[in-house]
Amino acid sequence: MPSIFSRIVSGDIPSYKVAENDNFLAFLDVMPLVPGHVLVIPKKEVDYIFDLNAEEYQNLWLFAQQVAKGLKQAIPCKRVGIAVIGLEVPHAHIHLVPMNEVGDINFTRSKMSPTTEELEAVAEKIRTYTAA
């Protein structure tokens, strides 16, 4: 059965895309830690990030870097934090989290529940800075 992220890639599940190319996709986490929390994934379904071949792995991080730079411009913050946990969805992914303090990337804290309108507004703002 395809992962939820593969279903997002195929368009079966809607998402708030912020950047995309032939191999990778970045979209908003719908239950973010903070506004602008983005997930970066390979379109190819691979369970564990370290199972990507060397070229895919490097290109995923280069794509994430591009998204993070746009994210920092769109969402004022001190840093864009990164996390690779890999337990919650069996599809390799990188969390990009706008941070002003260490607690902003604490995955044990309560998640936000933004509205569709709030998510679309944040996605549009980030897209403005990640467009190639």
Helix-strand blueprint:
Elements: H1 4-10, E1 17-20, E2 24-28, E3 38-42, H2 54-74, E4 79-83, E5 94-99, H3 116-130
Antiparallel strand pairs: 1-2, 2-3, 3-5, 4-5
Summarize the model shown.
This protein has 132 residues and is of the alpha+beta class. It has helices at 4-10, 54-74, 116-130, and strands spanning 17-20, 24-28, 38-42, 79-83, 94-99. A five-stranded antiparallel β-sheet has the order 1-2-3-5-4.
CATH architecture: 2-Layer Sandwich
Low-confidence stretches: none
Nearest-integer average pLDDT: 95
Total individual domains: 1
CATH class: Alpha Beta
Q: What structural category do the secondary elements indicate? A: alpha+beta
Q: Can you tell me the overall shape? A: globular
Side-by-side strand order of the widest sheet: 1-2-3-5-4
Q: State the helicity in percent bands.
A: 25-40%
Strand content: 15-25%
Overview of this structure, please?
The protein has 132 residues and is of the alpha+beta class. It has one domain: 2-Layer Sandwich (HIT family, subunit A). The protein contains 3 helices and 5 strands, in the order αβββαββα. A 5-stranded antiparallel β-sheet has the order 1-2-3-5-4. Helix 2 crosses helix 3. The radius of gyration is 14 Å and the shape is globular. The N and C termini lie far apart (33 Å). 36% of the residues are buried.
